[in-house]
């Protein structure tokens, strides 16, 4: 059985988005100059943290599903992308494609 191209695409997009999230919110905290900016950046990061964690877990399972051709990992990745949407609905457009690709890849992979 060959590796899923859908999971590969989803993994690449998800990894790029995860790196963007980490760089953006880490940069916001480190570049803050006064107390109010630090508090604001810290609060924003705390609000987004559940979304970031869910995306991180989804990316791990996404790559796991692609690397070992695990159908269950593709399903877990799709579910975690969906949970990340629930955690921060404003950012749904950044993970909806990955979620759909994971679910389609899961459906196309053969049962063992």
* Percent of residues in β-strands: under 5%
Q: What gross morphology would you assign?
A: elongated
Low-pLDDT sequence parts: none
Tally of strands: 0
Determine the fraction of residues in helical runs and give it as a percent range.
over 70%
Report the total helices: 4
Helical/strand content category: mainly alpha
Q: Cα-atom Rg, whole angstroms?
A: 16 Å
Average pLDDT score: 91
> Main beta sheet: strand number and arrangement?
none
What is the succession of H and E elements? HHHH
End-to-end distance:
11 Å
Task: Write a structural description.
The structure is a single chain. The chain is an all-alpha fold and 112 residues long. It is built from 4 helices and no strands. α2 runs antiparallel to α3 (71-87) and α3 runs antiparallel to α4 (96-108). The longest helix is centred in the middle third of the chain and has 34 residues, at 35-68. The model has no long low-confidence stretch (mean pLDDT 91).
């Amino acid at each position: 059985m060959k590796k899923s191209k859908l999971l590969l695409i989803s993994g690449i997009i998800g990894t790029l988005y995860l790196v963007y999230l980490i760089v953006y919110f880490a940069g916001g905290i480190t570049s803050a100059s006064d107390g109010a900016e630090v508090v604001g950046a810290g609060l924003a990061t705390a609000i987004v943290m559940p979304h970031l964690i869910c995306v991180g877990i989804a990316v791990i399972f996404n790559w796991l599903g692609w690397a070992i051709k695990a159908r269950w990992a593709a399903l877990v990745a799709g579910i975690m992308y969906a949970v990340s949407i629930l955690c921060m609905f404003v950012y749904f457009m950044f993970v909806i494609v990955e979620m759909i690709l994971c679910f389609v890849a899961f459906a196309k992979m053969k049962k063992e």
